[in-house]
Design brief:
Blueprint: E1 17-19, E2 22-24
Antiparallel strand pairs: 1-2
Length: 46
């Protein structure tokens, strides 16, 4: 596993849920318009 360091304001844990041909992760409404980064921490299916 690689190690990444990211500076930010908040962290949430979530699960990517299937949507059409991709997936999505829900974040709080107050994050609308903010730049966000998503980091996969496990292999799919674990």
């Amino acid at each position: 596993m690689d190690r990444h360091e990211i500076e930010g304001h908040e962290v949430i844990d979530g699960t990517a849920k299937a949507t059409g041909n991709g997936a999505h992760v829900l974040v709080p409404k107050r994050w609308r318009g903010a730049d966000v980064k998503v980091v996969r921490t496990t292999e799919p299916g674990e």
